[in-house]
Amino acid sequence: MLMQVDASDSPDIMSAVGAHMPPAISARGVNVYYGTKQALNDIAIDFERNQVTSLIGPSGCGKTTFLRCLNRMNDLIEGCRVEGVINIEGQNIYAPAVDVVALRAHVGMVFQKPNPFPKSIFDNVAYGPRIHGIASARDELMEIVERSLRRASLWDEVHDRLDQPGTGLSGGQQQRLCIARAIAIEPEVILMDEPCSALDPIATAKIEELIDELREQFTIIIVTHSMQQAARVSQKTAFFHLGELVEQGATEQIFTSPQDTRTENYITGRIG
Amino acid sequence: MTDPFGAQQIGLKKRHAAERRFIWGGRLAITSALGFLLAMTITIGWFAVGALTQTDIRLPVNLGPEAIDPQYLRGADYGKIVKDALKAEFPEVTKRGERRKLYGLLSPDAGFELQLKVTSDPALLGSTHEIWFLASDEIDQLIKGKVDVSLDESQRRITDQELGWVDHLEAQGNLRRTFNARFFTSGDSREPELAGILGALVGSALSLTVCFLICFPVGVFAAIYLEEFAKKNRISEIIEVNINNLAAVPSIVFGLLGLAILLNVFGLPRSSPLVGGMVLALMTLPAIIIAARAALGAVPPSVREAALGLGASRIETTFHHVVPLAMPGMLTGAIVGMARALGETAPLLMIGMVAFIVDVPNSIVKPATALPVQIFLWADSPERAFLEKTSAAIIVLLLFLVLMNLAAIILRRKYERRF
Lengths: 272, 419
Hints:
- The structure holds two protein chains of two kinds.
- Chain A is an alpha/beta fold.
- Chain A is built from ten helices and ten strands.
- Chain A starts with 24 loop residues before the first strand and ends in a 5-residue tail after the last helix.
- Chain B is 62% helix and 5% strand.
- Chain B has a three-stranded antiparallel beta sheet with strand order 2-1-3.
- The A-B interface holds A 1-3, 5, 71, 73, 76, 78, 101-105, 108-109, 111, 113, 115-118, 127-128, 131-132, 165, 167, 178, 181-182, 185 and B 231-232, 300, 302-313, 315-316, 319-321, 325, 417-419.
């Protein structure tokens, strides 16, 4: 019943990590359809290593759809079809040889609503390492759990109650637990889908601080509705509108001198 | 505008009246339902209490060597010993017909009972002993006040002469009422005073065990496959519609299926809990699949996304996260289905579990009957004393049901997780 997934068996997502660092993720000609309705139209974008990229845009513009293409979570949606090429570390993740299980071990995800498993805090973080065979002994797991919780700056708050259910934490703590869970399996990329939209400003500030720290090790792509948040946490920003990628560039440039009028209208609050 | 918040303002009086009418209607409905339930339970319970006691008659019996050869206990005529004891107690009875009535004071099993006693305790041999014997059902009913002695003799089954004998025994303290342990420890009998519920209880328990072992795993795995893995297309739609239709098929049809396939084609043992359980499983399966799918569907998708997003495969996601969360719902559904199977009679009639079976079954391939069938059999018997047995059997069935539902509640409480 348990299928151990060994990272070394997966297609060589890793092997392309080369000397002169091409972009971590590069998407070309991505079209997404829900049934006959086209949700994304010819998206082309690169994501740099160890940078935070924000995807902004009004509701229904396709930014979450695009984010979910990057770890193939859209495969779960009945009638969803993805065209185009998305290379992560040089490997097209939509190639037939790619195993989505291995892909998702390399591309972690944090969801809009904190969704810890209804298990203990320890088991929440240890689950990923366990199924991927990264560690199995209790003390090895403990090490990983502690390291992950520290990196998610949650350790000090929960270290004395690791056996308590993760669902008993506050919203902000739950979201940091989800981040700890995601980084426990050492992915290269972390996708965040509006990670702060269900949180209060203080919890939001903590998560944003955390995102900035995590950038040192991970490539982070974050979908957000808050333009202030995009401005605060990201180095690059991409603006989506009606299924099209309207504009992308350095965050500062997007917010100070947008090239497209639609971007300007959105960031000044005229559409959205 | 003198009273801005008065009731006459926006037709409030009428609107509140509608609410009150509804509340009172609801209370009335619940009260009458509870009333009926209470009336039913009390009536049945009232009759059932009688089955808890039995009447015994004490007689001095001669166990001397002239009656029983100590070397050959099996050879003695124990029935005759008991009859002799009765004759000695009432020497004035000499006519054949009257004698037969006299012997009828005791259960026909009295001789056998005596033999058991003597075999298990040979110290009784050699002299006369006072021994309690089980009275016949008619005497038992008389003692319990179920016979109207004010009626004319021709209107009742007990003659004045028999009444005289009973009075005589009672006056001498040779008559008593004791707890009827036999009812809970023996199988069925043609004699009401000897009939017990254990055979049917064990038959039901064995059938339900077989039923659960078949339909829970099959039902749960079918539900998991349909809900978590199967593609939503025309075929899965047809399967879904058919499962819903199967849940509504009258149970006797499943009984006929069991008769035609399990008994006649595969030659499985007739009247056995094995076949009974399989037939009940067929009947319960659709209900369990539907309940299990509902339980799986109630698990929030965020749990699946969380696991899949971590790189868990679909089967890991399902069995590590979704199934444990759905387990309380699935168990509850299964137990509710089993409770329905417990009360089911029709399919069991078809596969021969309606037979008169005295032995308590000790395996799933031995002939057996089940509680509801036992109730049906006793209710169908002419002897008045079976009335209280029937009622008691109903109470036992209801208690069994209550226990199962209690188990469902406890399991649900235990495994329920909040998220």
